[in-house]
Each structure stands twice: as structure tokens, then as C-alpha cells.
């Protein structure tokens, strides 16, 4: 079993609390498993851990599905069989769904696991008023956006997020 860690940012920039928590959980899991990490620029992984960053412009992270597709390509290049997701609790359902979709698109044999350490923090504590992405600043903002993402047909979501 070859494992990798895939932390999904939740807001911008890197120093907001949600991204700090995600980076901390991902770094601890990477150390524990001796696993490499594939992540975004706003997740700062501890030194001494192998990290590959997705392609993105600073301050403009890719949509969740595009990032998930990059993670699967990375996992295939490294012959990884298991990916551990680290994500903010409000974002987790979509991270799992999009990573599952990306794995299915490639017909890859990769299992997904969720880092249970994210449960240390209540769902409301993942939102950061100082995030530059309005939708990650509050539960109200997040739910307004997610409601749309949940009701649009998935094939339309895939077109938008690609």
C-alpha cells in the first residue's frame, strides 16, 4: 500500500486559521504514514515532507474538481493506492465526491480515506472572517454557494469546474 496525503485549502490566504489547521493535520499524517503530499499554495506543509503543488495563480486556487483531478494524476505518477483527504468539514462532502469522480474518470484503483483529525474542530470553526474568499468567511455565505452546487446537475458542475 502506497499512501499520499491530499489537503484541500479552505479559503485564501495561507495564514488563515482553517488553512493552518489543514496544513497541521496533513503534516502530522504525512509524518505518521511517511507519505508525500499533493496540495495547494495556501497550504504550508512542514519542512522535511515531500510536497507537490497543483498549478495555480497565487490567490486564485483551482476549483475543487480540477484540484482533485490533479491529485489523481499525481497519485498515478507515484503509483499510490491510497489517498488521505484533509479538508474543512463543510467542504469535505465535495472533496470526497470530486476526488471519487476524478478516480473514476481515470478508472484508477485508488482508495480514499478521510483524516479523522478534522473532527477535532466543530463545523462552524472552519469559517474565517479574514478569508479573501467570501464564501469561506461564514456558514451563511458558504451555504448560499453550496446550495447551488448541490442542486445543479453534476455534468454541468463538471463543465464549470473544469
Describe the structure.
The protein is α/β, with parallel strands linked by helices. It has one domain: Rossmann fold, CATH 3.40.50. Helices cover 43% and strands 12% of the residues. It has five helices and five strands; from the N terminus they run E-H-E-E-H-E-H-E-H-H. A three-stranded parallel sheet has the order 1-4-5, with helices on both faces. The chain has a two-stranded parallel ribbon with strand order 2-3. Strand 4, helix 3 and strand 5 form a beta-alpha-beta unit. Helix 2 packs across helix 3. The mean pLDDT is 96.
Please outline what is shown here.
With 162 residues, the chain is an alpha/beta fold. It is built from five helices and five strands, in the order E-H-E-E-H-E-H-E-H-H. Helix 2 (64-77) crosses helix 3.
Task: Set out the fold topology.
Elements: E1 3-7, H1 17-33, E2 37-39, E3 51-53, H2 64-77, E4 82-86, H3 89-105, E5 111-114, H4 139-151, H5 154-161
Parallel strand pairs: 1-4, 2-3, 4-5
Helix pairs in contact: 2-3
What class would the helix/strand composition place it in? alpha/beta
Number of domains: 1
Task: Report the end-to-end length measured between terminal Cα atoms.
Answer: 30 Å
Proportion in helices: 40-55%
What Rg is obtained from the alpha carbons, in whole angstroms? 15 Å
